[in-house]
Amino acid sequence: MARKRKKAGAISENKFAIIFVTGVVLSVAIILGLKVNSIKTGIGKKRVLQSKKVIEELESEDERSKKLEEQRKNMFKPTVI
What we know:
Largest sheet: none
Helix content: over 70%
Radius of gyration: 35 Å
Mean pLDDT: 87
Shape: rod-shaped
Distance between the termini: 125 Å
């Protein structure tokens, strides 16, 4: 009988250990999932900001090139004396 009690106690201890480890693994998985999600949103926001900056730079370069082209046209205009 003592063996049956020891065996039953060991089985219940193993069950509790398995349940505990499973709970810890699930908790870590949930925490990591949340962290990954927040990192992804941060990366998305950075990409949006970078693309806006690139678009602004392209627009400013386009305006600058138009001004330079206008200056070049005015520089080489034939003048009537």
